[in-house]
Amino acid sequence: MAVLSDQSARTGRSGADAAAGRGRAGARTGPRRRGVSLLLNGVSVGFGIALWWGLAAAGFTLPTPAEVVSQAGTLLSDGTLQKDVLASLGRVLAGFALGTGLAIPVGFLMGWYGLVRGLVEPWVQFFRTIPPLAIIPLAIVLMGIGETPKIFVIFLAAFLVCVISTFQGVVDVDRTLINAARVLGTGDAGIFLRVVVPASTPFILVGMRVGLGSAWATLVAAELIAAQEGLGFRMQNAQLYYDLPTIFVGLITIGILGLLMDRVLLLAERRLTGWQERR
Fold this sequence. Notes:
The protein is mainly α. Helix content is 84%, strand content 0%. It is built from ten helices and no strands. The N terminus is likely disordered.
């Protein structure tokens, strides 16, 4: 028995040492992997700019990167770009926050209660097949030409994406986990908070990221509604005068803002779902 006990102790120590070794290896490879990823990102961006410049030099109807940077400097110097960014960012944030804020509880209720699913799902699926841009004429008639219809169509775009993702996350929770929690005496509220919510969090965050993209994609059309400032408005106004550098400034600004917001959501996803294995 003493020999077996000593052998078990050695096995336990070796297993702990191996786990610690894997942890140290992961800590070492983490920064290295991030460094390689950043290097590849930089190479990709540099290649894209070089290709853009080459196409412009070859005679394609494109402004050069230098012309776009010059126009961006002009718009920054007179304050136009800052005002447009603040106006568009405010609309996107408001619509996105309202859309996801409503979509998450609705998705949970649809996934957890069959009655709510039967009542709400047909309407969600019905409106999901209608592009939010098609709602613009109705929004103008019902809500006027102020900020409300602009925020509403962005809200609708974010809501419809996020509610489906949240609902799918709830219904895809492993039944084994729920049954195990019930066997251990956990009530419905405890199962929902300790099993369903953590298990569906990755789906929710993916839905939020896709919803954010939909919100930005809807922005330009939303700013057709009697807007006087905003990135979408500026691009459409530049189209009338064939002002390609201004259009490119708007496109790049929207892309950068969307990328930064997506990185924030990705960081939140990594913090909230640290228990998941990642490749």
